[in-house]
Amino acid sequence: MQAVSPAVQLKQSYRYVKYTFFRLDAEWRRLPDDRRLASKDEFLGELKKYEQLSPRSYSLIGTRGDADFMLWLITDSLDTIQKLHSDLLNTGLGKYLSTPYSYLAMLRPSEYFGKPSDPEPAGSKYLFVYPFTKKREWYSIPFEERRRMMKDHVQIGHKFSSVTIHTAYSFGLDDYEFVLSFETDRPEDFLNLVLELRSSEASKYTAIETPIFTCKSVTPEEMLNLLGS
Question: What is the chain's mean pLDDT, rounded?
Answer without folding.
Answer: 93
